[in-house]
What does this fold into?
Amino acid sequence: MSLFLEMKQLFAAMPPLLNLGYVLLVFSILLVVFILKKYQYSLRWLLPFKNTEKSITEDLLKQLYHVASSRRTTDFKMLSGALKIPERKILKIVESMTQNGLIKISGSHITLTETGRNYALSIIRIHRLWEKYLSEKTGFDKSLWHDLAETKEHQLSNEEAEQLYEELGRPRFDPHGDPIPTALGEMISETGTSIAGIPKDTVAKIIHIEDEPRSIYRQIIKEKLHIGAHVKILASENHHVIFESEGHSIQLSTVVASNIQVVPLSSQEVYEEGKVRLSSLIEGEHATILGISTECRGANRRRLLDLGFIKGTLLTLEYMGPNQNPRAYRLRNTLIALRNDQADFILIEKTQYDRTGSL
It folds into this structure.
């Protein structure tokens, strides 16, 4: 007898309510298995990470790599303060790292060996790949990417990192513009200039936003700045910089602005003076879509395109909800509601057209 017929007879012999309960149980199990398989990378970060000595060792290696890249030196006290770990705990782990050939100690100064440098680069590679994954494949806000990657970098093996690298299409840069080290420990870099150091009226493109320290990074993302955004410098003073980006005028202190790197626009790139975000439209105004911000990636980008927010499309803001959020836009004879944070991703140019829809 086939499995199908056996199952059919089993269900027929059960009371109706028991049948329903069994079906729901099987469905629930299958649903959990599906979610775990489909979102295995997203869900693993929820699991506690208990190997604290390993994580501290890897954090120390990463910190020493950044110090060496800045051509500076560090000691036990500075490392303790930077990582917020008691100095006595660091001393114990540093002793183990020295015995394993990861670091060298000269007086109070600590430096990486070649083995330690390669280990540090493998951790940085996993961290930046995971940030890329979070930006491309999940709906996590960008303010969370760094902290989630800080946990994940200690959990993924090099083999899993390679699988992630292939899944993401072999990316060269993370979502902040930092180069992702290769599996062989090679670093590809793109040199830019701090936005705080370029003259008035310069037009440029953001290629890197430093995500540490977190307090400064939060100030930058609060202004909705992102990799690929075009900027025009309006004023550059000793203590602050004023510039325009996607229709918004932004003022940052030179301390904060120094964490943003830009390059001049290429001959193929054009700075569009009238480009603003869709969220700036007011009720009754019309606009032409210029495109979707490069900040919008993955499923969010595909959803907006599927809804019809395509370059060249005309639209009108017809209704604003309570507190002006969400808002309803009419395009292609369809009324679509978007939250303001979604509308921020759509770049437009305000236009005038008559009731027939002609410009």
User: Anything to note?
Assistant: Residues 285 and 316 are 6 Å apart (CA to CA). The first helix runs from residue 3 to 13. Residues 1-5, 35-51, 354-359 have pLDDT under 50 and may be disordered.
